[in-house]
Amino acid sequence: MDPADRLALTTLAARYALAIDRRDAAAVAALCTPDVVVVLPAELNRTDAPAELRGRETVARSVVGAVSHLVATRHIVGQQVAEADTAGRAHAETYCTAHHIYARGDGHRDNRIAMRYRDTFERSDGIWLFSRRELVVDFAEDVPVTRSGR
Fold first, then answer.
1. Angle formed at CA 118 by CA 68 and CA 45, multiple of 5 degrees
2. What does the pLDDT average to over 25-45?
3. Which residue of 54, 85, 97, 120 is 20 to 30 Å from 40, comparing CA positions?
4. What is the pTM of this model?
5. Domains located in the chain, CATH noted
6. Residue 150: is its pLDDT beyond 60?
7. pLDDT tens digits, residue range 77-108?
8. Exposed e or buried b for every residue in 24-49, given b needs 16+ CB within 10 A?
9. What span, in angstroms and rounded, lies between the C-alpha atoms of 40 and 68?
């Protein structure tokens, strides 16, 4: 895979994290193909089976809506291993640690989730976009945190 394509895929994952943290549904949608599929594991959808979100508007609205009640989020994208299928399609596994800050009592807590995205990308008009993201939760922890005075 060309180094420019690797950089584009890494940047795409970082832009997705930034868009979620900024609660920017339009930015999330712009990073996805029209028929994107996001697969949420049972741990994140509070059921006993994975759930699929389909279509860029549904994905953007659902993902941003899922974090909108939180005080803050921070998604930290880690390593990504990517392989090209064709000139216009690639796959990657992308690591992420997601911090979800919420109020409890007179303080705050961080529900931290260590996860991986199993990503599929498609190139459209020279731009890489997500066509599928499958989340895998490796572990989670819930810890007290101190927020700086804002």
1. 40
2. 93
3. 85
4. 0.93
5. 3-145 (3.10.450.50)
6. no
7. 999 999 999 889 999 999 999 999 999 998 99
8. ebebbbebbbeebbbbbeeebbeeee
9. 17
Query: What phi and psi values does residue 103 have, to the nearest 5 degrees?
Result: -85, 140
- The gap from C-alpha 57 to its chain's centroid, in whole angstroms, comes to 15
Tokens standing for residue 150: 């804002």
The 10s digit of each residue's pLDDT in 39-72 is 998 877 777 778 899 999 999 999 999 999 999 9
E strand or H helix at 4: helix 3-21
Which amino acid is residue 33, in one-letter code? T
DSSP state of 31: T
Q: What percent of the chain has pLDDT over 90?
A: 87
- Residue located via tokens 């089976």: 49
Q: Computed from CA positions of residues 129, 13, 72, 45, in that sequence, does the dihedral angle turn out positive or negative?
A: positive
pLDDT at 18: 98
Instruction: Say if strands 32-40 and 127-145 run parallel, antiparallel, or are unpaired.
Output: parallel
Whole-number Å distance between alpha carbons of 108 and 130? 33
Q: Which two tokens stand for residue 127?
A: 């731009």
